[in-house]
């Protein structure tokens, strides 16, 4: 979401970011923008900006075309410029017509721009997604893209003296904060929603928040999930159960567990049903074209508590079938070998080119963010950190040592939780597992946090509706007042 993100995906289910989201669950962020709504294109035509391939090598003159969108409907001469930052999926032009940022734009007379992130959507800097070419995919290059776009667009449109405000949610929320941090002369203020600003290889806290979020609906719910997950793990140890498991979870082919990667992938895929729902619980995402917004924590815990379905294991399988029916998935491919094949396909037409191959590369070379079952205070089992880390080696030949060093460099470069800047507001929701890596208390009066009890990932960015919690409406108003105040400075 800026939108883009919001977990690019978990195991590749189908998962966002604000802007869009690609297909599947990619591992890292559950996505914000899941789909691209082609119906919006007639209203907001895609435009193209000539961008540099490598901003940090003056001897490299290679260029490529980066996609962006413009909404001038609210602009008043002298007004600010709002820049929505794209993330780990296609930029969704639905955001040019919907979203809280447009409410702010109308009140403040802002020109609205949205820039797609390099290597996602239609913004293809290189001929393919080979690991060598992915070396040009990083948050640092993306920030330099934003800086160059802002500089050249300001000159071309006579906006050099206008105040620019960056918006983003999830990974793009981090980019919004870091854009203000690293290029303070170019961006006046930022709204960095659900932004995980601290990089970490192991992120077991994600599943701890999932447990608490499920328990907030029903204290028994995470206990039933744990019992089901433990039962499934035990059955995976006995090949005689594989035919029944294949039928219970409607797998595309008979279950085969030949390595620990196979069982971990299967277990993570099933846990992903709960992870995605918790992350986006009751968020108003229908305008994006997102399917399944009617599946909430209440729905999942209702299924898990339904004794008529049988033991907890059977209810867990019922959740999986419910999600498959909701997303029109005929059968579940639980094969890690298929996932490996998809993730190592380097073509722009490949099955993981919607964002999966790219985002997991960024986790392996910058962020980590691996949502492992290494904590005892969560209900799932079977996908430890080692499983996540091995994928970096399998997909990109990145070792565990290189991953750890890359994550340390990211925190060294951006500061982690210790942001030293001004005019950045950092909203987070208590239900959203990503708040564990974000800022939930004010750093300074000029670096305020907005912690919204009972809301999920990027909730404040979505269009308002009558069912919104009072504290969500208040948060949107508070952010607007901050922008109003900062634009006068």
Quick gist of this model?
With 489 residues, the protein is an alpha/beta fold. It is 38% helix and 11% strand. The chain contains 15 helices and 10 strands.
Structure characterization notes:
Helix 5 packs across helix 8, helix 6 crosses helix 10 and helix 12 packs across helix 14. This protein is of the alpha/beta class and 489 residues long. The protein is globular, with a radius of gyration of 22 Å. The N terminus is likely disordered. It has a domain of 231 residues: 3-Layer(aba) Sandwich (Rossmann fold). It has an 8-stranded mixed beta sheet with strand order 1-2-4-3-5-6-9-10, sandwiched between helices. A two-stranded parallel sheet has the order 7-8. Helix 4 links the parallel strand 5 and strand 6.
Radius of gyration: 22 Å
CATH-defined architecture of the domain at 38-199 and 419-487: 3-Layer(aba) Sandwich
Structural class: alpha/beta
Series of H and E elements: EEEHEHHEHEEHHHHHHHHEHHEEH
Helix content: 25-40%
Distance between the termini: 27 Å
Which geometry do the CA atoms define? globular
Please give the largest β-sheet: 8 strands, mixed
Count the helices. How many?
Answer: 15
Number of strands: 10
Compute the average pLDDT: 91
CATH superfamily of the domain at 38-199 and 419-487: Alpha/Beta hydrolase fold, catalytic domain
Please identify the top-level CATH class of the domain at 38-199 and 419-487: Alpha Beta
As for the CATH topology of the domain at 38-199 and 419-487, it is: Rossmann fold
Share of β-strand residues: 5-15%
Low-confidence blocks of residues: 1-42
What is the strand arrangement across the widest sheet? Answer: 1-2-4-3-5-6-9-10
InterPro entries: AB_hydrolase_fold (IPR029058), Peptidase_S28 (IPR008758), Ser_carbopepase_S28_SKS (IPR042269)
Family: Belongs to the peptidase S28 family.
Protein name: Serine protease 59, putative
Organism: Dicentrarchus labrax (European seabass)
């Amino acid at each position: 979401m800026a939108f883009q993100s919001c977990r690019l995906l978990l195991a590749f289910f189908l998962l966002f970011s604000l802007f869009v989201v690609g297909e599947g669950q990619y591992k890292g962020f559950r996505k914000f923008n899941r789909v691209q709504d082609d119906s919006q294109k007639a209203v907001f035509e895609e435009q193209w900006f000539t961008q540099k391939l490598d901003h940090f090598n003056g001897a490299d003159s290679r260029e490529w075309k980066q996609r962006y969108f413009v909404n001038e409907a609210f602009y008043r001469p002298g007004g600010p410029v709002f820049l929505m930052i794209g993330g780990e999926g296609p930029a969704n032009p639905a955001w040019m017509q919907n979203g809280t940022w447009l409410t702010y734009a109308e009140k403040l007379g802002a020109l609205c721009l949205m820039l797609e992130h390099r290597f996602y959507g239609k913004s293809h800097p290189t001929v393919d997604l080979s690991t060598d070419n992915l070396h040009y995919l990083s948050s640092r290059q993306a920030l330099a893209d934003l800086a160059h776009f802002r500089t050249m667009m300001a000159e071309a449109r006579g906006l050099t003296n206008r105040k620019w405000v960056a918006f983003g949610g999830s990974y793009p929320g981090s980019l919004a904060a870091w854009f203000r941090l690293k290029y303070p002369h170019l961006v006046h203020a930022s709204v960095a929603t659900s932004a995980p600003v601290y990089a970490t290889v192991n992120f077991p806290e994600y599943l701890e928040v999932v447990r608490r979020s499920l328990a907030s609906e029903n204290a028994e719910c995470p206990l039933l999930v744990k019992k089901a997950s433990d039962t499934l793990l035990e059955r995976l140890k006995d090949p005689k159960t594989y035919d029944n498991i294949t039928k219970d979870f409607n797998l595309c082919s008979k279950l085969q567990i030949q390595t620990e990667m196979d069982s971990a992938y299967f277990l993570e895929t099933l846990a992903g049903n709960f992870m995605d729902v918790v992350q986006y619980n009751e968020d108003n995402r229908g305008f994006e074209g997102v399917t399944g917004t009617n599946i909430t924590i209440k729905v999942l815990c209702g299924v898990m508590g339904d004794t008529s379905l049988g033991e907890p294991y059977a209810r867990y399988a019922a959740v999986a079938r419910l999600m498959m029916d909701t997303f029109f998935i005929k059968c579940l491919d639980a094969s890690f070998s298929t996932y490996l094949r998809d993730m190592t396909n380097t073509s722009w037409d490949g099955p993981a080119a919607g964002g999966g191959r790219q985002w997991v590369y960024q986790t392996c070379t910058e962020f980590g963010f691996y949502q492992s079952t290494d904590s005892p205070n969560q209900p799932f089992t079977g996908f430890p950190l080692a499983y996540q880390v091995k994928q970096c080696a399998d997909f990109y030949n990145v070792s565990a040592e290189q991953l750890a060093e890359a994550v340390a460099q990211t925190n060294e470069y951006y500061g982690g939780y210790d942001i030293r800047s001004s005019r950045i507001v950092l909203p987070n929701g208590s239900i959203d597992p990503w708040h564990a890596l974000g800022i939930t208390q004010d750093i300074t009066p000029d670096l305020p946090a907005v912690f919204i009890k009972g809301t999920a990932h990027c909730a404040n960015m979505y269009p308002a509706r009558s069912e919104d919690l009072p504290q969500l409406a208040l948060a949107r108003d508070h952010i607007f007042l901050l922008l109003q105040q900062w634009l006068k400075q």
